[in-house]
Amino acid sequence: MLVPEECLIRSPLAICIFIGMLLLHSVFAAEIPLGSKLSVVDNDCWVSSNGDFALGFFNISDQPNQYSIGIRFDSKSIPFSQQTVVWVAGAHVTVGRMSYFQLTNDGQLVLFDSSQGIPVWTSETANRSVVSAAFRDDGNLVLIDREKHVIWQSFDTPSDTLLPGQNLSVYQTLRAASKNTMSSYYSLYVNASGRLQLRWESNIVYWTSAGPSVANLSVFLTNSGALQLRDHSSKPVWSVFGEDHNDDSVNYRFLRLDLDGNLRLYSWVEPLQSWRSAWQAVENQCKVYATCGERGICVLSASGSADCRCPFEVSETNRCLVPYEKECESGTNMLTYESTFLYGIYPPEDSVTISSLHQCEQLCLNDSQCTAATFSNNGSAQCSIKKTQYVTGYADPSITSISFVKRCSGPLAVNPRLTNSPRPKQPPKLCVPCLIGAACGTFFFVAILQLGIGFCICRRRNSTRKEVALAFTCPNSKGLTKLSFSEIKSLTGDFKNQIGPNMFKGAIQNNHLVAVKNLNASIEERKFRGAVLKIGSIHHKNLVKLEGYCCEFNHRFLVYEYVKNESLDKHMDDSTLCRRLTWGKRMEICSSVAKAICYLHTKCREFVSHGNLKCSNVILDENLEAKVTEFGFARVNGEASYCGFSAEKDVEDFGKLVLTLLTGCQHTDQELCEWAYREWVESRSVNVVDKRIEGGIDPEELERALRIAFWCIQMDEHRRPSMGEVARVVEGTLNVDPPPPPFTVQRPLLEEDEDDDTQKYSSESPV
Ligand SMILES: *[C@@H]1O[C@H](CO)[C@@H](O)[C@H](O)[C@H]1NC(C)=O
Ligand SMILES: *[C@@H]1O[C@H](CO)[C@@H](O)[C@H](O)[C@H]1NC(C)=O
Ligand SMILES: *[C@@H]1O[C@H](CO)[C@@H](O)[C@H](O)[C@H]1NC(C)=O
Ligand SMILES: *[C@@H]1O[C@H](CO)[C@@H](O)[C@H](O)[C@H]1NC(C)=O
Ligand SMILES: *[C@@H]1O[C@H](CO)[C@@H](O)[C@H](O)[C@H]1NC(C)=O
Ligand SMILES: *[C@@H]1O[C@H](CO)[C@@H](O)[C@H](O)[C@H]1NC(C)=O
Ligand SMILES: *[C@@H]1O[C@H](CO)[C@@H](O)[C@H](O)[C@H]1NC(C)=O
Q1: Which one of the record's GO molecular function terms can you name (predicted)?
Q2: Contact 14/8 with Cβ under 8 angstroms?
Q3: N or C: where does the chain have the smaller number of CB atoms within 10 Å of the terminal CB?
């Protein structure tokens, strides 16, 4: 099927990248000696000797001053705006403005992030006798030893693109870029029986190639524009051809798993000066799983793109199809959509019964859990009942299915979960096929409200009086107050009331209590202020609010809202306090912490990681509601550092925190994790549960919590889920596959094993 050439431009990320490229000074570098370096500020790059590809930094325009390093087309015949990025080091790793990329003298590629002061990505080839790097004409960056053996190559760590000559083996995946970590992801891989498959999240396969059933196949794109599955002797066992296959006028091709979840083969059309899709895996874009997310019904436009339509005006929620929330005051009615197929996303399974069209509608109407239903009749009349708020679908005149969506007849009842927050009016206009981010939405609104309250409308303080009371009545525009060291001393009563490590209780005007943290570290003033301003603008009900700071000489203090009650580790240690931590409470704490970290990762203007998530940094208020503190500042080697760090580290820390809550053991070392995993694998999950928990546990929640914890602590960072996914699993709106053993790293993303695991454990485990 032909997709018009604007196709590429339609992808928002692609536009960002094209606009954002800032490569200028080129160095032709067929051979790159040890010690060679590229930096953001120098704008330099390495270019393959035929001039077709360049490796250098680029910026992504929706994240100011965040850069990635990658390989893009650099040919003179391709205009700058069309110089697509084909490989990115570390996939989604971004770095600050003073960062550099170096082939170090010990033979490894290192991406050094200036904002964190640490390497954030390496090729992990130190001590492997690398003597130089070469940038080959096919776009492959390779590290070679004295005998010219390839020790490492960029072709082995693909991001979303496959170039001609590159293999995608059975253990590798292409992953669609996503605009943020909240997004669900689409991936491409070869399954263990040799089928090429497109998958959504970890469980839904929405496209499978034909072909024979042969193990250990790899995907290969030929120079002439054929996509093949090859066996170990490089013999093709299955092929598809782009429509310009064998067209000699095409000089450049690539295969990409696009942001919209479709796999496309692109060719450079010289006369048109643009990329054209010569083949796409899912012909009808509306058949890509969850293409419209919760934003309506997918209708294929004349140009072949997916058009997400909302059949009625959405006034109360940002979901299109099911504003019905089980609380209708004046009854419900059903709206009918002809030629429309609907399916639930969380969970994806519908319950199916044999019924007539009329019965189908009645079944849903009579069932208070039912939100929508689809009646299909191909052979036998079937009614599939959806009991979830997350419904999506597609419409086409050729489809015989008829769908029903439940609506409140009268005014919408108030959703209790949202009463504390203003509901934004969503225009009925629908966005590009973006993906779903349900879990954090609510909290975003809550946060907006808090932000509104937090803003104090007052003039900038121009007096230099050092009165604590005055200081707190008039915070700066961020809601943050700058305090002098003497103010800190006076409000803490000369640090007499210590409430934690380097943490002191203090009071300001009207006995407003605060907790003052002494960072005890010499962070550069400019960096410290930058970090404080960033953190000060973060407001979430499960994050302890930063109210002020002190940055004077070498003093660095943070002033937080004071949360009555103790930290989680105190609760776990103390036998009386611990009794309050029932199973339900522990699950609530997991959920609150997950939402808070998810919020940090995805809802702030810049990415913020916690960096030091552990029980002592989770405080429980009077109602045992969890509030996470000390985010954005973390200790590395005893030195406080600021912001940065990786999302993956937080995810791992969260996994350990969950295990701590479940087991009651404060030291979640590898041994404990391995033991817990073994117990789980052998269906003895209850053995790991803290014996002090009173009032019983919920086995289903336990299974879910253990699974997600084991995913989080995967030693291979790429296997760890995003915090958004974690939050959804914890609150039960997303299913999770059985996790592989956390401490094996030899074969990243080993699809074969994962599939085996699924079969092995699904019968034993209830979720
Ligand atoms: C990205 O780089 C381009 C080219 O140098 C520049 O015009 C643009 O402002 C940059 N964007 C950001 C967000 O830094
Ligand atoms: C590399 O070798 C040096 C000296 O033999 C050793 O100190 C260092 O730990 C090694 N590094 C790695 C990553 O193996
Ligand atoms: C791709 O795989 C084939 C055989 O499976 C091998 O001969 C070739 O070297 C591989 N290419 C790369 C770039 O790894
Ligand atoms: C690979 O996919 C095919 C088609 O969906 C399926 O029949 C087969 O069972 C899968 N193989 C494995 C090992 O999962
Ligand atoms: C597939 O590859 C693995 C690892 O290289 C090997 O152990 C296995 O025997 C291969 N299977 C087949 C059917 O060739
Ligand atoms: C739905 O409820 C009505 C009234 O309670 C009943 O008459 C009807 O048979 C029910 N329909 C189905 C399909 O259960
Ligand atoms: C009926 O056919 C449609 C497509 O024609 C298909 O998507 C759907 O799954 C089928 N339904 C059943 C119940 O087989």
Answers
A1: protein serine/threonine kinase activity
A2: yes
A3: N
Q: What angle do CA 267, 271, 272 make, to 5 degrees?
A: 70
> Which residues make beta-bridge pairs with 212?
none
How far apart are alpha carbons 149 and 307 in whole angstroms? 49
Q: What is the largest CA-CA distance in the chain?
A: 83
Mean pLDDT of the chain: 78
Q: What is the DSSP string of 142-182?
A: EEEETT--EEEEGGGS--SEE-TT-EE-TT--EE---SSTT
> Per-residue pLDDT tens for 149-159?
999 999 999 99
C-alpha dihedral (143, 144, 149, 150), degrees to nearest 10: 10
Do 119 and 110 contact (CB within 8 A), yes or no? yes
Mutate which of 110, 125, 127 to test ligand 2's pocket (most atoms within 8 Å of Cβ)? 127
Question: How much is the pLDDT for 521?
Answer: 72
- Which region holds residue 331: left if phi is over 0, alpha if psi is between -120 and 50, else beta? left
DSSP one-letter string for 465-499: ---HHHHHHS--TTS-EEE-HHHHHHHTTTTT-EE
How is residue 349 annotated by DSSP? Answer: P
Sorted by sequence, the CB contacts under 8 Å of residue 373 that are 6+ apart come out as 342, 360, 361, 363, 364, 383, 384, 385, 386, 403, 404
Does the beta carbon of 167 lie inside 6 Å of ligand 3?
yes
What is the DSSP pairing of strand 263-269 with strand 253-257?
antiparallel
Nearest CA to 50 among 71, 69, 29, 24?
29
Ligand nearest to the CA of 43: 1
Mean pLDDT of 534-539: 78
Which of 672, 732, 718, 692 has the alpha carbon at shortest distance from 680? 672
Beta-sheet pairing, 109-113 with 100-103: antiparallel
Q: Residue 290: its pLDDT value, please?
A: 87
Q: What are phi and psi of 68, to 5 degrees?
A: -125, 160
User: What is the DSSP code (8-state) at residue 122?
Assistant: E
State how far the Cα of 194 lies from the Cα of 174, in Å rounded to an integer.
16
Question: Residue for token digits 């782009």?
Answer: 242
Task: Give the residues across from 277 on adjacent strands.
Answer: 3, 266
Residue, of 534 and 411, whose pLDDT is higher: 534
DSSP type of residue 160: S
Helix, strand or coil, per DSSP, at residue 337: strand
Please tell me the total number of residues recorded for the chain in this structure: 767
Kindly write down the DSSP assignment for every residue of 132-143, as one continuous string: EEEE-TTS-EEE
Walk me through the domains of the chain, giving residue ranges and CATH numbers. Answer: 1-157 (2.90.10.10), 158-283 (2.90.10.10), 287-408 (3.50.4.10), 476-561 (3.30.200.20), 569-760 (1.10.510.10)
* Cβ partners under 8 Å of residue 632, min gap 6: 531, 534, 535, 538, 600, 608, 609, 610, 611, 642, 643
Closest listed residue to residue 264, CA positions, set 276, 277, 251: 277
Ligand 7 pocket member 376 (CB < 6 A): yes
CA 638 – CA 685 distance, rounded (Å) = 36
Nearest bound ligand to CA 157? 3
β-pairing, 44-47 vs 25-28, is parallel
CB count in 10 Å sphere of residue 54 = 26
Residue 371 C-alpha from the chain's centroid = 28
Distance 610 CA to ligand 1 centre (A): 28
How far apart are alpha carbons 631 and 378 in whole angstroms? 55
